[in-house]
Amino acid sequence: MRRLCILAALSACLLWAGPATGEGWKANIAGHPSLPHKFLAVDKASQKLHLYARQSPLKELSSYPCTTGQGNGDKQSMGDLRTPEGVYFVEGRMTRPLDWEMYGNLAYPLNYPNPVDRLKGKTGYGIWIHGRGRNIVPRDTRGCVAMNTPDLKVLGQSLDPGTPVVISSELAVRTDAVADAGAARDLEEAVTLVNKWARAWETGSEEFFSYYDPKAYSEAGEGDFERFRAQKRSLFERYAWIRVLAHDVRALAGPDYVVTYFRQYYRSPALVSEGISRLYWMRGAGGGLRIVGREWERTGVTLDGAYLERSRAEIAPVIDAWRKAWERADLAGYMKHFAPGATQGERSGHAIREHKAQLWPVATPKRVVFGSQRYALAPEGIEVTFNQTYAAKGGYEDKGVKTLLMVPHGAGWKILREDWRPL
After folding, report:
1. What percent of the chain has a predicted confidence (pLDDT) above 70?
2. 306-328: average pLDDT
3. What is the largest CA-CA distance in the chain?
4. CA angle 180, 65, 4 (to 5 degrees)
5. Rounded-to-integer distance, Cα 139 and Cα 47, Å
6. Alpha-carbon distance 257 to 281, whole Å?
7. Which DSSP category does 90 fall into?
8. Residue in 222, 200, 97, 84 with CA at minimum distance from that of residue 142
9. 86-89 vs 164-168, strand pairing mode
10. Phi–psi pair at 401, nearest 5 degrees
11. Spatial distance between the Cα atoms of 202 and 194, rounded to a whole number of angstroms
């Protein structure tokens, strides 16, 4: 898997695809509220490189002369002297010394070939945005995008790893307009699919695999899809639960594909991991978007807080429903919120039900009040702590601190452990 660097903070522009023709891909750019805040766009026809940002609605921050490949059209094979066309991402800055005359000792590699390029059988490597030790002239590289080194030094302040780069044969930009409905719909469909894909992953269902094009995924160099399916099924069976957070999903359109990219947070009883994920989508025979390739790089874990907030929003209604069932002495409603193997103090499983079934007829709950809830990550799930006031008919009352260990269960949450101590 090609190395994928941390994406820059991205927020708001839309790129939509024009047709991929014999003359190359003609890209159109217009504002849209859900896509990158910052990106580069290379216009091979005008030999210009532009830096854009979404600023009410779209603003060109800077523009520079550049030079691209000596060959015309989209890159197809190693040595054809063409610059590839599509959506690519900056992988970082080269740190080793480079030839001054050829590269100006400054270069930023791009992720060519991406999975769609490999699916189409394109070959070659080493496509960079780099400097020159002399003044550039049009169409003078072996396939890279070259700039005058002083310009690249200025632009480099904006070239965070993961910055999107749109390279097209011809570029049309409308800074005072938004994309047409069809283009917006394609991008919004892809973002929606990412969230559904993440939920299907969490449930460990066969639906998860329906988001992929097995043949294309294998041919794009992602490995045999059936082996991938078997590995995932093994993990679904091994772990009691899985949670996947697709954070800040963004999308861009290439000539005939859509790439979505986001920070992916994964949590199970045995593993917590985080990284940047890019999914490449193409339309299949049925017309729907399917994943044909993926790029991923593990990073440090930064989204514990975001995961905790999402969990809080899901767990709070469950705890309240459990409290209400308790207050109504609804034994079935009360017990359905416990996970298999749950414990309540020294009681477990069937003993929890039997205790309530014997207690409630003689000391029926009258009032169950929970105070402010405090949420914390735990290896097995989420720990929720709060003050509890309880009263039963006949005059019994107590106050204490309740701690619930909540664990994912299917698409929801259940109580795995309940502890109480008096105040």
Report:
1. 94
2. 98
3. 93
4. 65
5. 8
6. 6
7. B
8. 84
9. antiparallel
10. -105, 125
11. 13
Q: Please say if the pLDDT value at position 143 is more than 90.
A: yes
Whether the per-residue pLDDT at 6 is higher than 80: the answer is no
Query: CA 223 to CA 133: how far, in whole Å?
Result: 41
pLDDT tens for 150-163 read 999 999 999 999 99
Average pLDDT, the chain: 91
- Give me the pLDDT at residue 12, please: 32
DSSP codes, 206-243: GGGGGGB-HHHHIIIII--HHHHHHHHHHHHHH-S--E
Contact 212, 111 (CB under 8 A): no
Report residue 9's pLDDT band, with 50, 70 and 90 as the boundaries. very low
Question: d(Cα 417, Cα 83) in Å, to the nearest integer?
Answer: 59
Q: Do the strands 24-31 and 170-178 form a parallel or antiparallel pair, or are they unpaired?
A: parallel
Burial of 158 (0-12, 13-18, 19+ CB in 10 A): middle
Q: Are 390 and 366 in contact (CB under 8 A)?
A: no
307 with 36: CB under 8 angstroms?
A: no
Q: Judge whether residue 340 has pLDDT over 70.
A: yes
- Tell me phi and psi for residue 331, to 5 degrees: -65, -45
Domains of the chain, each with CATH number or no CATH: 14-178 (2.40.440.10), 181-302 (3.10.450.50), 305-422 (3.10.450.50)
Long-range own/partner contacts, residues 17-23 (CB < 8 A, 24 or more apart): 17/183, 17/253, 17/254, 17/255, 17/256, 17/257, 18/168, 18/172, 18/255, 19/255, 20/74, 20/85, 20/255, 20/256, 22/73, 23/73, 23/169, 23/170
Calculate ∠ Cα 171-277-125, nearest 5°.
Answer: 60
Per the listing, tokens 């905790």 go with 308
Task: Identify whether the C-beta of residue 61 lies closer than 8 Å to the C-beta of residue 131.
Answer: no
Read out DSSP for 298-352? EE----HHHHHHHHHHHHHHHHHHHHHHHHTT-HHHHHTTEEEEEEETTEETHHH
